[in-house]
Amino acid sequence: MKKIMNLLMCPVCREALTLNERTWRCANSHSYDVAKQGYVNLHVVQHKHSKNPGDTPESVQARRAFLSAGYYAPLQQAVVNKVRELCIENLLDIGCGEGYYTDAMQAEVLQCVGVDIAKNAVQVAAKINKNITWVVGTGATLPVLDQSIDLCSSLFSPIPKQEILRVLKPQGYLLVVTPAPQHLYAMREALFEEVKPHEPSKFVEQLSDAFDLVSDDVVDADLKLNQQDLKNLIAMTPYAYKAKQERREALEAQTAFELHAQYQILLFQKKA
User: Does residue 74 come out as left (phi exceeding 0), alpha (psi in the -120 to 50 range) or beta?
Assistant: First the structure.
């Protein structure tokens, strides 16, 4: 049995954290209690920009309900298959939200850390899988030690490049999932005058100096939504607050809606 490594880092002094009973503590005696729900808050006050950063409770609930209905299961499975192929020991899921993907990926590794800035999302996540170290934290200072991680994943989340480079082991991996050009096109067409296609290639360009692209896959799924699922999908996307109110209301009035989901799965490896 491989020894489980301490991966977490003190956000104040950057020393390693050790768990004793229900408290994470570093050599300089900074301590962080595990909340009763089973997560630890490493988002120290000086890094916060607002009282409740991250997703609103409404978007968290909407996403949880929509994902629970299984619409993104083909993507979840494709992501799990990618992780399985890598045969790695640990992973850090950046922007884990309620843990829909994190929970599925955890079965493929010995150690899994999920981090999100939204405390309300992490509280939900912590209830679904006790084998994951759930952390409220930020991409600006990822809560793990230098060169400790085999795989960082960012699924529909920001990509804090310098921090990812810091925490990945030499030749570690980065898995990025992002909307492909046709993703939810019919929905965006209903919400906006002008639809700009998503551009997954921009991530490849942004990362090309420090990462090699290992694989690039597109996953397609056709969605047949009822009215409630459609409302949930609208609420969980960034389109919700960008669209004009009357357009959103007109779309939400539809009792059924068919659309196409399309995702790009990009796997990168840190250059030697």
Answer: alpha
Whether residue 78 contacts residue 219, with contact meaning beta carbons closer than 8 Å, is answered with yes
CB of 124 within 8 A of CB of 99? yes
The pLDDT of residue 1 is 43
Closest CA to 218 of 67, 107, 74, 69: 74
What is the mean predicted confidence (pLDDT) over 254-262? Answer: 96
Distance between CA atoms of residues 180 and 201, nearest Å:
9
Instruction: Give the up-direction half-sphere exposure of residue 125: CA atoms within 13 A in the CB hemisphere.
Output: 33
Instruction: List, for residues 10-59, the tens digit of each pLDDT value.
Output: 999 999 999 999 999 999 999 999 999 999 999 986 555 555 656 788 88
Q: Are 271 and 194 in contact (CB under 8 A)?
A: no
Helices then strands, counting H and E runs in the chain, come out as 10, 11
d(CA 148, CA 48): 25
**Structure tokens belonging to residue 160:** 């804090």
Whole-number Cα distances in Å, 45 to 29, 41, 86, 96, 204: 17, 10, 36, 21, 33
At position 183, the amino acid (one-letter code) is H
Q: List domains and CATH numbers for the chain.
A: 39-183+191-218+262-270 (3.40.50.150)
Residues 141-171 pLDDT 10s: 999 999 999 999 999 999 999 999 999 999 9
- Give just the sign of the alpha carbon dihedral 22, 24, 30, 32: negative
At residue 194, the pLDDT reads 92
